[in-house]
Amino acid sequence: MFDKQQIFNLLKKDKSSWLTAHCDVPFNTISIDYNGDIYQCTCSDWLPKKLTNILNCTNKEEFLKLLDSNPVKDSILDRSHRYCLGTKCPALQGEYRQPKSYFTDYETVTDEGIEFLHLNIDNSCNLACPTCRNSTIINKNNEPYQSRLQNILDKIDEYFFNPQTIKVIHCVGNGEFLSSKLLVDWLLEKSKLDIKFALQTNGTLLYKNQTKISAILKKTKELYISIDASNSELYSAVRLNGSWNDLLKSLNWIKFFSKYNNIEISYNFTVSNANYHDMLNFIAFAQSYDVHKVYFSKVDRWPHISDEQWKSMNVFNASHPNNKHLLQILENDAFNLPFVQKNF
After folding, report:
1. Which of 45, 75, 108 is the last residue before a domain boundary?
2. Tens-digit pLDDT profile for residues 280-321
3. Measured on CA atoms in the order 299, 196, 107, 67, is the torsion positive or negative?
């Protein structure tokens, strides 16, 4: 935990007074959301300064010129990191605790082009989890949406695969990649290249699509499965429209598949008032599947969440009636196990 002075330092716009090194992520990574907006970080919530919109770029030369020189890169080189949110970025928090253990010295900052592409370009999902949305969102019959998505993919092909510079594609964010036919078909084409994938999924569609996506999974190095519960009763409450039986079929199948394809499996758990009491059970549940990591994340406030919903949901608030119980649970030694991680 950080004290008030430490939080104040992390909140500083100019962090060069305490930051002795440089984050190299903006030099090799971009993320693209479903509007086509581009950010020079793995997460726009950590670095919300938009570079541009890929659909507004008229040609590759214009895009590469903007990518080569811009305010975000300047902020990294002068160590201010003024566009980065220190209280949200785990790398900056880690650098605050252990200087130079996460970031790099000036001499070793490299600018050899974008190698890591984080895609959050389709928010379609077969589930309607209360922490994420009010209803199921499926865009397959939305022609304007599909046209925009295809245009984004075409621009990515032009800017990063002609010739290929991307080494790793991360499919992350607020959608289920298996609910997006355009995206799955595009990934299948990319699986023919010398490339690796890191995928986030709710897991319920893996088993049903095992034949179609096996080529993608054979190129996958990391698979993050968002589950949020250790039993069927709680799962039905926090993962609306999700089938516990379909999930278990997928978990058993991917456990077998990953052993022969060297996939690192992580089980993810978004902690809210609805499920915080299940965290220890979830660690045991994950251990039974021999996963590589268990990752607990703090519930975020999405635009659809009202003030009253957020007040009830955010068990991390010190005034929440269950906050003390949460803190008692977090004192358990199980959270010190090497494969257990958390972002709070």
Report:
1. 108
2. 999 999 999 999 999 999 999 988 899 999 999 999 999 999
3. negative
